[in-house]
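Open question from group meeting: does this chain pack into something compact, or does most of it stay loose? Before anyone orders reagents, we agreed to write out a predicted structure and look at it together. Recording both the input and the output here so the notebook holds the full record.
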Amino acid sequence: MESGLTLCEKLARSTEVMKEALQGCNPRIGVILGSGLGPLANEILDPIRVPFKEVPFMKTSTATGHVGQFVCGTLGGVEVLAMQGRLHGYEGNSAEEVAYPVWLMASLGVEILITTNAAGAINTSFNVGEFCLMADHINFTGRNPVVGTEPDELAFRFFSMLDAYDPELRALARGVAQDEHLTLREGTYLGLLGPSFETPAEIRAFRMWGADTVAMSVVEEVIAARHHGMRVMGISLLSNMACGVEGASPSDKEVFEVAKEAEPKFCRLVTGIVRAIAAQCL
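C-alpha cells returned:
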C-alpha cells in the first residue's frame, strides 16, 4: 500500500476505480462466497468481473478455490455485487485488509451483506451437507478490524453487536428454505484465525462456550459491516463434522467434495434469499 494515504483516501481511490468498472451498476446487496461456494457467481447474469488485483489497495486471494474477483450482475433478477472468494487472516492479511472489501462494498452503496462459508459442525444434531444460519458469533481470531484510529474516521468505533446477524433477514432465509424444502439450521458460529483445523480439546471447549459451528472466516467481515451500518446475514454450508466429533478428522478435500455436492441447493437457497430481500427489505 502507498505510504501517506489514510484508510479513507485509499477507499476513495478504490471506490472510484470500482465505479468506473461497474459501468453504472448500483447493487444494494453484497454476497461473499466462501470455500467451495464460488460457483454461485456463475449464475449471475450479464456479469462484470473485476479481479481483486485490479482494485487499488486490495489484497488478492491465495486460498484454494477462491478465484479472487468481484462479480456484478443480476441474480434471480436482482442486482448484486459478489466476491468470488474472500480474504483470510491465515493468508497473512491483517484484520483491516480482510475488512477492506466489505468497507469498499459499503462505499459503493451495498446495504445488505450475505456472507457465506464452509464450516465444521460442533453441534451433534447437525449433519454434513446441511446449511446453518448464523444467529450470533464468537470472535476467537484475537483480532478486530476496527482497532486503531483510521477506521474511526469511517464510522464511530464503539458500536453495538446486538443482532449483528439481522433477525428479519434470518426470518426471510428460513421462509425461503422452507419453500425450497431445504434443511436450514441456526446457531452460534465461532471464527478462528486458522489455517490449521481445530483440536478435539478445542472443539470440546467451544461446545461448552455455546458454539454450534466453527471455521476460519466471516467474523472480521461482519464486524466491519456492522461498523459501517450494513445489515448482515451469515450462512454456513456444514462441510464436515468438527475435529473429534464422531471421530471426524477434517480435510480440505472433504470440504470441497461436500461443497460440490451441495452446489445446486446452495444456489437455490441464496438466489431465493436475494429475491426475498429485494421484495421485502429494499
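Observations to bring back to the group:
Strands lie at 29-33, 45-51, 69-75, 78-84, 112-121, 131-139, 184-191, 213-215, 231-241.
The first strand starts at residue 29 and ends at 33.
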